[in-house]
Design a protein that fits this description.
This protein is of the alpha/beta class and about 1550 residues long. About 35% of the residues lie in helices and about 15% in strands.
Length: about 1550
């Protein structure tokens, strides 16, 4: 019970590839892999690249995990393999079976553990508050502390630096000239700092300031002026290693020359000046492109064929008589081969395809053929020309679009006239040579020593597939000018592996290792465009240096699933999310809810639970450093409330330097060269270069960052976001152990309050609980500090705004709260109504709220009492000295006094059973009634609600609205009396606490109490069962609960009374007379239809289910009582079908007596000293066939006399008419159907009987439709000798013969009178007759001339066993049904192994469904797999459910089929047996899944075709569960 280690279970399903599902786990968790239904029984191997203990991680090295089978039995449905997760990173797993190594797989991401401070304490991920710094704006290294102190004094605990390396010519923070060198700007004159000094500074911040530092890594590109790229041009995409870029390069040079011409005003006369200002100018650009540029460079020629050259080559082949090589033909088209070097007219033709298509008929036709060939090539060239026109159209659009943004758009940079410094569009390729004419430059393309230096620039492509590299062959991004280009950076070309570009991989690996050595984490710049395999390799190198590496990235994939691919493969810890992406406060609040935390009042999840996909951990920033300034887009007043909303998120949070200081523009990563301000507590607003708590919102941010870290550290993991009005967002963070809350009310100011109207009417807020303090109240205010003027040396903010803030004050000290009054909504609600007066736009107020003192005490006491179930409740708990006495003893000590019959009441009982006792199952208005009155009814709903935290479910609503459900649980048990009443009183005592806590907490604590009681009850239940159950798998235990579900004692005894002379019979006082009455457990046939009243107990159902549900699980005494109770009702030599307490019994079935005999045999075999039952006294209810019912004790006989009577009567011949025959006992039966007959054929020993108007076996559907004219006609009479009855009788006579030999049974055989003479037949003789005749009469041989076959014309399947022998309708004998496997189990000696195996294979192929067995061969003309008892139409075969046993898939025969398969597989050899075990496990796994998911926690009576749910079926059927328990027992 007190399971504390966090275990997650990942269910593996065949062909389930989860590369896009994100599974995030913490270090210290255990991950278990278990097999889903589709893999049960298969020999599955799970592989992972998680390193073996002591080994270094190698992502390419996988090892197989070892399976652990907790039960050690053949039933290994609980087996698992596990990983103890102790190392951060991304790990892959996959699994396979048979010859397939990969049938599915995915990734797991293990979070790093971050540590800070001298004591190296943990910094939880949700505590992170990060601030970004552009490294180049920090100045010399020895001035960094003064500038970084701003982050410390503002309450941040992590700093993100843009790259610290030497920058390229553009001075962009992300264009690095040398990845290995520290930026020389950081070294003052006469001093050269190195990475060592940077590392020392970072370590100082970590130890002394408790701040971690991370920095960017840029893998995608390098500065165009990087010295090493000139020495190693193979590291970029150039015209030698990427000749597919040649056409794009040609276009790029042509556009550059257009730029030069425009700058020199050469196109003015064409209406295109250097200064582009209008649409007319844009149209002129298009005109010049189409009339001058494109025709001049003829790009289509790179994709065309030299027609005459190809025709000449083709003619030569034809004339030489060349033949087609058919093995090399690919399709029926003429194949054009793209020239790998991309020369003009360099494309060639696959002449093999030409020879196949253009065939000359005679020598004179060669030239005609060549002409056809020439025409086709000219068509293809024309197609290529059109393709290029399409690309040029897009290129023209992109060029014009670029010009619009850069020169015309209000939000663009407005570059002014076209010059070489500001070209028409950014160049796509480097050109490190002197410029000449375009034609001369194009010749360089053919000189490899020059062409290798024309390197493609990097950039990004709008709406591109992030998993595709846009510079690789197959992409036309450069040709179509779709790249938004960074002209200062060269895109790096890694290839697929280090061997493809050794220098680049080695260089970048070293860069990575330097970064990982000195920094706690990395931000992957431009992550979505970084080749995944490269980033994987680099991060593996980084983690080898720093195992707990913190990795963040900002992805622009537009898809959460594709985000997950990056997170999975790279092991990204946090994804950057931005509040600026929200268009309004409602969306901002939604992001808080989306990015972390669980709902307030969430359920406690078990420590061992399924692993479910999640979303990436968020780093939620108010703004990122490379995005526009919020002041420009919103207003300065919004900075504080939006920051507060972000700070309340249950994830990592942060900002960029400048936001808190009201810098009113974006601090450009490219152009900004000024330095950040330093920290000076005495600074004045007017002085640039220094800041303190009075600057911007720094004081507010300090308070918010402290609060953010406190909430995460103290476990405020629950989040509620309330949109109070269009501008006000209230965010609640709640701690589920102390139930303290922090509520931040933020009034955003997306619109400038100076120019937009905001209402003064602020709605009041209702805060549940007692407000302890105002943590902070702050608002943005103006001050007289002069207007903003951009400083030339320092990055400065708006001086005229600051924050007015008060911290840790009481309500009466607040300037924002007008009044707070307590409004109570009942005994457990303590609500404060807050009215605001100065909650102006830009204001924030944060309340700390506790439960009222009484509720705090109650919750603490309740948590203390729950510790017996889980240590989770220790935090926030306190003992209650005045707790009720019953709560001072452990619940187990009360529970252990309950019997299994009591457990039936505690856990189960469906509505019909509850109603019989004067109650009913709990019903939720506007929803539905629960399936059970007992705990399972509630647990089934909670099992669905809990994992999803579906607190809006009607079940949870009902709990919050009143105590009805709570009282139902306890009162129902108290009213029962006995030990159950003690459990009810325990509930009452627990619920007395529950009722006095706030209503929003009731669902989670109600669940906690029920989970504790339920799991305790199950533990006690299984301890009262056999070792088979106690040591069995979870599946066995779930099935064994079916015994508790079905076996109970109702208000009225269902069984006839047992002999007073019998020992160990349970008694109770009668409810009405108060006299002592027997209260034996009876077995319900099925829920809900056969659970109460006279329809609860059926002889056939009881004895088919008794072995599995009672004997196998160890309920021997109760099984004995049921056997003896039914024995007492013996009449005409038969056991009743419908028991009706014996008094209303119907003796209209031929098989129940044989199932009863089989159970007595099983009892004798399974139970220690089981044969003692044979001498137990049985009180005869009917001393003669015609006597009236007698009370118990009037006439007692030993059980063996009843057995003998049943055998004797059958051999003598049973023939009678049912009492009260007619509509009063059966309104559908025809008169002839009431005539009962059961006899034994003296020649074969087969029991036979019945007639075509009744149905004496389990297939007992009687027609009910007047309309279809099937009323009174049985669908399946199965008269004659039904195969399973022959098997059961064979089992009985064999057993009795053996018992007699052992001296345990007084009769050697039966004695009958026939034709006035007395005849004796020994059991051995009877046994021999059946043995000698069974296969002769029942096996349908492959020999068409088989002399034993009386109706060869009716055979339609061979190699099977008949369903009956001697039926009045002979064709019924030959129907394939699932009944002969029953005989195989109870009397396997009747079968030849090979014949039995073949017959079982046919049954498997034809009858086995997902859950059940088809009751009729689908090839049969009356087969219909869907049962609808309400349908009344003209169709004889289906009206009113006539096809009940003519196709629908029943579950209980599956058990016998699988047991038969197992028995005969053992005889067939190991290989066959192993395959059969796989089949058994695979079939059973579907039942396991059904059982787990079913709210009834049972298995249905039947399903419709192919396992579809049948609404007319019992949802849980005794024999369905029993027969599968027997399979697992056999296994």
């Amino acid at each position: 019970m007190l399971h504390n280690k966090q275990v997650r279970v990942l269910i593996l399903n065949d062909m389930e590839k989860l590369e896009r599902a994100l599974f995030r786990l913490d270090q210290g968790f255990e991950l278990q892999f278990r097999l889903g239904a589709t893999l049960q029984g298969k020999n599955v191997t799970v592989y992972t690249n998680y390193p073996v203990q002591g080994e270094i991680f190698d992502r390419h090295k996988f090892q197989a995990l070892t399976w652990v089978n907790p039960t050690g039995k053949e039933d290994d449905s609980d087996k698992f393999c596990a990983l103890d997760l102790q190392i951060a990173g991304s790990y892959q797993y996959y699994f396979g079976y048979g010859n397939e190594e990969k049938n599915g797989g995915g990734y797991i991401v293990v979070n790093p553990v971050l540590r800070v401070g001298v004591d190296n304490h943990i910094l939880p991920l949700d505590c992170i508050a990060i601030q970004t710094y552009l490294a180049k704006c920090l100045g010399p290294l020895d001035e960094w502390l003064d500038r970084l102190r701003v982050a410390k004094e503002s309450g941040y605990n992590m700093i993100h630096f843009t790259p610290l390396q030497t920058l390229g010519l553009s001075r962009s923070c992300y264009s690095l000239a040398d990845q290995l060198e520290l930026n020389p700007d950081f070294s003052p004159s006469r001093k050269k700092y190195t990475w060592t000094e940077v590392g020392n500074l970072v370590e100082k911040l970590k130890k002394e300031w408790e701040m971690l530092c991370i920095t960017d890594v840029v893998y995608n590109h390098t500065a165009a002026n990087s010295k090493w790229i000139r020495e190693h041009p193979e590291c970029g995409y150039n015209l030698v290693n990427s000749p597919h870029l040649k056409p794009a390069w040609v276009l790029d040079r042509a556009i550059w020359h257009l730029t030069c011409d425009l700058a020199e005003d050469k196109y003015v006369d064409r209406g295109l000046p250097a200064l582009i200002q209008s649409d007319r100018h844009l149209n002129a650009i298009r005109s010049v492109l189409w009339q001058d540029v494109f025709p001049r460079i003829k790009l289509w020629e790179f994709f065309q064929v030299d027609v005459e050259k190809a025709v000449a080559q083709f003619r030569t082949l034809l004339q030489s008589g060349s033949k087609v090589d058919k093995s090399k033909l690919k399709g029926k088209q003429l194949r054009i081969i793209q020239d790998p070097n991309y020369r003009r007219y360099g494309n060639t033709v696959d002449m093999n395809s030409a020879l196949a298509l253009f065939i000359p008929h005679g020598p004179s036709a060669v030239e005609e053929c060549c002409n056809w060939f020439r025409n086709r090539l000219q068509e293809i060239n024309e197609e290529r020309y059109k393709d290029m026109q399409y690309h040029q159209e897009q290129a023209a659009n992109c060029i014009v679009g670029n010009v619009v943004y850069e020169r015309l758009a209000d939000h663009g940079p407005k570059l002014g006239p076209v010059t070489k410094k500001h070209p028409l569009v950014t160049r796509y390729f480097t050109f490190p040579f002197n410029e000449t004419t375009l034609e001369q430059e194009l010749q360089l393309m053919h000189q490899p020593d020059k062409a290798c230096h024309f390197l493609a620039h990097n950039g990004w492509v709008m709406a591109d597939d992030p998993l595709r590299n846009f510079a690789e062959p197959g992409s036309n991004v450069y040709l179509r000018r779709e790249l938004i280009c960074w002209g200062d950076s060269v895109k790096l070309r890694y290839g697929n592996k280090p061997e493809d570009c050794p220098y680049l991989w080695a260089h970048m690996k070293k860069y990575t290792e330097i970064t990982a050595k000195h920094f706690s984490g990395m931000r992957l710049d431009n992550c979505h465009s970084t080749p995944l395999h490269v980033a994987e390799e680099m991060l593996a190198a980084a983690r080898a240096v720093r195992p707990n590496l913190y990795v963040i990235a900002e992805l622009f994939t537009g898809s959460e699933l594709i985000d997950n691919v990056f997170v999975n493969r790279l092991g990204i810890t946090s994804l950057i999310r931005e509040a600026m992406s929200a268009g309004d406060s409602h969306e901002e609040g939604r992001l808080v809810y989306r990015f972390g935390g669980e709902p307030v009042g969430a359920f406690v999840q078990p420590s061992l639970r399924p692993l479910v996909p999640g979303i990436a951990h968020a780093m939620f920033l108010d703004v990122t450093h490379d995005n526009e300034c919020p002041i420009q887009l919103r207003s300065a007043y919004d900075s504080l409330p939006s920051s507060a909303i972000v700070s309340m998120a249950c994830c990592a949070t942060g900002s960029t330097r400048g936001y808190d200081e009201f810098v009113p523009h974006q601090i450009s990563v490219v152009t900004e060269e000024r330095l950040y301000s330093k920290w000076n507590p005495q600074a004045t607003p007017a002085v640039a270069g220094e800041v303190n708590l009075q600057s911007g919102i720094i004081a507010g941010k300090l308070a918010l960052n402290r609060l953010h870290q406190e909430l995460a550290a103290k476990g405020f993991i629950q989040v509620y976001v309330d949109q109070v009005d269009e501008d006000i967002v209230a965010v609640t963070r709640h701690c589920p152990s102390t139930h303290q809350s922090v509520v931040a009310v933020c009034r955003t100011a997306f619109r400038n309050p100076k120019t937009s109207h905001y209402s003064d009417d602020v709605p009041p807020m209702f805060i549940p609980g007692k407000i302890e303090e105002i943590v902070l109240e702050a608002r943005t205010v103006e001050r007289p500090a002069g207007r903003y003027k951009k400083n030339e040396k320092s990055i400065n903010g708006l001086p005229e705004y600051t924050v007015e803030i008060k911290e840790h004050i009481q309500l009466n000290e607040s300037k924002i709260v007008k009044q707070a009054k307590v409004t109570s909504k009942g005994r457990s609600e303590f609500v404060q109504e807050i009215a605001f007066e100065h909650l102006t736009p830009g204001s924030v107020i944060v309340f700390r709220v506790s439960l009222d003192p009484k509720a705090q005490e109650i919750v603490a006491a309740l948590r203390n009492l729950l510790i017996q179930f889980s240590r989770h409740y220790e935090s926030g708990s306190a003992a209650d000295d005045e707790a009720a006495a019953i709560l001072r003893m452990p619940l187990t000590s009360i529970m252990s006094k309950l019997t299994l019959a009591d457990m039936n009441v505690l856990l189960f009982r469906c509505d019909a059973e509850e109603q019989e006792d004067g109650g009913g199952c709990y019903s939720i208005p506007s929803w539905m009634a629960l399936k059970y009155g007992g705990l399972q009814g509630f647990m089934s709903v909670l099992a669905d609600v809990r994992p999803k935290n579906d607190l809006g479910h009607p079940f949870c609503d009902n709990l919050r609205q009143g105590d009805w459900m709570i009282d139902y649980v306890s009162n129902r048990l108290v009213s029962r009396g006995g030990v159950l009443a003690e459990v009810g009183k325990w509930f009452q005592a627990m619920f007395s606490y529950l009722k006095h806590i706030p209503r929003y907490l009731i669902p989670c604590y109600f669940d906690a109490i029920l989970v504790g009681v339920y799991t305790t009850a199950l533990d006690v239940t299984f301890k009262k069962m056999s070792s088979f159950v106690q040591n069995g798998s979870t599946f066995v235990k779930l099935l064994a609960l079916g015994s508790v579900q079905m076996c109970g004692v109702g208000r009225f005894p269902a069984l006839p009374p047992l002999s007073p002379a019998l020992k160990d019979v349970p008694y109770r006082p009668n409810n009405v007379t108060k006299e002592k009455e027997q209260c034996c457990v009876s077995l319900a046939a099925g829920l809900p239809h056969f659970s109460s009243g006279i329809f609860r107990c059926w002889g056939r159902d009881t004895f088919i289910a008794l072995r599995g549900l009672m004997l196998v699980v160890g309920r021997h005494l109760e099984a004995r009582n049921i056997i003896l109770a039914f024995a007492g009702t013996l009449r005409h030599g038969l056991i009743p079908n419908l028991l009706g307490q014996g008094i209303c019994a119907r003796f209209n079935c031929r098989d129940a007596v044989w199932w009863w005999l089989q159970c007595i045999q099983d009892y004798c075999t399974i139970v220690p000293s089981g044969t003692d039952i044979l001498t137990c006294p049985v009180s005869r209810m009917y001393p003669t066939d015609d006597s009236s019912p007698q009370p118990a004790g009037v006439m007692d006989q030993p059980l063996h006399d009843f057995i003998q009577e049943a055998m004797q009567r059958h051999m003598q011949g049973i023939e009678f008419r049912e009492r009260n025959a007619g509509p009063q006992i059966d309104q559908n039966m025809r008169d002839e159907g009431f005539n009962i007959q059961a006899k034994v054929n003296p020649d074969t020993g087969f029991v036979y009987g019945g007639n075509r108007f009744n149905c004496g076996t389990w297939m007992d559907k009687m027609g009910e439709s007047d309309r279809a004219r099937n009323k009174g006609m049985p669908a399946t009479p199965r008269d004659g000798s039904a195969v399973e009855i022959v098997g059961l009788s064979k089992s009985a006579v064999r057993w009795l013969a053996e018992l007699h030999k052992q001296g345990l049974y007084p009769y050697a055989g039966v004695t009958i009178h026939r034709d006035g003479t007395q005849l004796s037949v020994t059991y051995e003789d009877w046994d021999r007759k059946i043995q000698d005749n069974f296969e002769k009469m029942f096996y349908v041989s492959h020999d068409p001339m088989d002399p034993n076959e009386k109706h060869a014309d009716l055979v339609h399947k061979r190699g099977i066993y008949k369903d009956s022998f001697g039926a009045s309708s002979p064709w019924c004998d030959y129907q394939l049904r699932p009944n002969f496997p029953i005989t195989m189990v109870v009397a396997p000696e009747l079968f030849t192994v090979e014949k039995a195996w073949e017959a079982l294979e046919i049954v498997e192929k034809k009858l086995l469904g997902p859950l059940g067995m088809k009751t009729l061969d689908p090839d049969d003309m009356v087969y219909c797999g869907d049962y609808d008892n309400a349908l009344d139409n003209d169709n004889y075969n289906v009206a009113r459910g006539f096809n009940y046993h003519q196709g629908p898939e029943w579950l209980w025969p599956v058990g016998y089929f699988l047991r038969a398969k197992l028995y005969f597989a053992r005889k067939m050899g190991k290989d066959t047996y192993d395959k059969t075990v796989y089949l058994v496990k695979n079939v059973l796994s579907r039942h396991y899944v059904h059982l787990e998911r079913s709210p009834w926690k049972g298995l249905p009576e039947l399903t419709n075709a192919n396992g579809q749910h049948c609404p007319f079926s019992c949802e849980s059927q005794a024999w369905s569960i029993a027969s599968l328990l027997e399979v697992l027992h056999d296994l």
